[in-house]
Design brief:
Elements: E1 11-17, H1 24-32, E2 40-46, H2 53-63, E3 68-72, H3 84-92, E4 97-100, E5 106-107, H4 112-122, E6 126-137, E7 142-145, E8 153-154, H5 157-161, E9 174-176, H6 194-204, E10 206-219, H7 225-230, H8 233-253, H9 259-278, H10 285-298, H11 304-313, H12 315-318, H13 321-329, E11 335-339, H14 343-355, E12 359-364, E13 372-373, E14 376-380, E15 391-395, H15 399-411, E16 417-420, E17 423-425
Parallel strand pairs: 1-2, 1-4, 2-3, 6-10, 11-12, 11-15, 12-14, 15-16
Antiparallel strand pairs: 4-9, 5-10, 6-7, 6-9, 8-10, 13-14, 16-17
Helix pairs in contact: 8-9, 9-10, 9-11, 10-11
């Protein structure tokens, strides 16, 4: 149902497009197929397309003047650093909710808006609703689901902020309009908007995931943002720095429960920047240090502690880690235990096993019904000989959990040798 009275809209569909002539018809048809009792209108910003996109938009707008409102730019605004969503706010602020879909993505389920709006109306604490989608890598002609092994339900902080189960497609976003207020929390505007909307939504309510495949996201096609950033080192670095700058400010203002997860995202971005954007193919601590300094110099902030932690964490990937571990372990004779029973611990075990060292058991913090991991015994920290200096503990954990475990071992006054990322930790 479409209503020409924009002040009474339930849903504003936000579409930002630039040179999407190859895809925009599917995008528009996905909007037009929607069958819903709720009032909606489509607001499109075309950023001075030169490939015929504007001709297609005018064609559709002439046929559906009550449904489509297109803003045609004469000069490209993105290249000037203009906040495109800010330009669209006067049009979409009239609606209770915003459904977002870029001009190269499209919906193929006619009841998408109906289902998401129904849910949001009946769950007022929900600030954002997302669903699954197909990622289409056009150059490789490869399609796959973006989210796997995740049931419908409210997302945890790990799932919504760190994307541990996959990255939710922007074309699935359906959120309260005031979630677009996210730039106001920072003097540094983020380089992208989808992730900040997610963070801001989590900070102000709950995010619900529908395990339904209702849209297709195109990826890495010529002219896309993904390709332009992936192939330009300067753009990569600028994106990384701006993103971390934004998150540094958001970290100050967000709920304390979110802070460790936002910090984890910053660590990931810095690691990504240092590993791929700065260093050469052969890594060393010296090169990592140079990379860290480059990140600092480019940034408006100073990340001294964060960059150092990042540099240490990257040792596994940027240095000959097996050789480093072998050098450390060969200097003393003791029984080896691995703290952790997850992906990091499994990777560490494979390295230790190939080097020819025996692992006695895996240590975990809390009791579990599992008694074995990687065909080895699992014990809790309470059952471990914490004061035995003849036992060596290798931390098979990510940086965040390692910090927590090191603190725990300090509290328990551990006398063992503790190794993290190939380095001996003095407790």
């Amino acid at each position: 149902m479409v209503n020409g009275n924009e002040s009474a809209l339930d849903i504003a569909i936000l579409c930002i497009t630039y040179n999407h002539a190859k895809y925009i018809r599917k995008t528009l048809d996905g909007f037009l197929m929607q069958q819903t009792e709720y009032k909606f209108k489509v607001f499109i910003h075309d950023d001075a397309s030169t490939d015929g996109t504007q001709d297609i938009l005018r064609e559709y707008e002439a046929k559906h003047p009550d449904l489509l409102r297109v803003i045609y730019e004469v000069e490209n605004q993105y290249s000037k650093g203009t906040d495109i969503i800010g330009l669209m706010r006067p049009y979409i602020d009239c609606a209770r909710y915003v459904a977002w879909c870029e001009g190269d993505d499209f919906w193929f389920y006619p009841y998408k808006l109906q289902k998401q709006c129904e849910f949001m109306n009946s769950h007022p604490d929900t600030t954002l609703c997302v669903h699954n989608g197909i990622n289409w890598n056009e150059p490789l002609d490869r399609q796959y689901c973006l989210i796997n092994e995740l049931d419908s339900g409210y997302l945890t902080y790990e799932e919504s902020i760190c994307f541990t189960k996959g990255h939710f497609p922007t074309c699935s976003f359906f959120f309260k309009t005031n979630m677009l207020n996210f730039p106001s929390v920072s003097k540094n505007a983020p380089p992208v908007a989808d992730d900040p909307i997610m963070y801001y939504s989590v900070n102000n309510g709950q995010v619900y995931y529908m395990d339904k495949v209702w849209a297709i996201r195109t990826y890495m096609h010529p002219g896309s943002w993904n390709v332009s950033v992936e192939t330009d080192k300067t753009k990569k670095l600028a994106h990384c720095v701006r993103y971390v700058d934004y998150l540094k400010d958001f970290h100050v203002t967000c709920d304390k429960k979110l802070k460790p997860y936002i910090m984890a995202v910053m660590m990931g971005l810095l690691s990504y920047g240092i590993r791929y954007f700065i260093c050469s193919e052969k890594y060393s601590f010296e090169e990592l240090s140079k990379g860290t300094e480059s990140i600092r110099e480019e940034s408006m902030h100073h990340y001294d502690d964060l960059c150092y932690k990042c540099m240490v964490e990257m040792t596994k990937l940027c240095v000959d880690y097996p050789q480093l571990l072998d050098r450390v372990l060969s200097h003393f004779d003791s029984k080896i235990y691995i703290y952790g029973a997850g992906e990091e611990a499994a990777k560490l075990y494979e390295i230790i096993d190939k080097l020819g060292y025996a692992v006695e058991a895996f240590i975990i913090t809390k009791k579990t019904n599992e008694k074995e991991y990687m065909l080895h015994k699992i014990i809790t920290i309470d059952d471990f000989e914490i004061d035995n200096p003849q036992l060596t503990v290798l931390l098979g954990l990510g940086w965040q959990n390692s910090d927590e475990v090191i603190g725990l071992l300090k509290e328990k006054k551990a006398k063992n040798r503790i190794i993290y990322n190939g380095h001996n930790i003095q407790l």
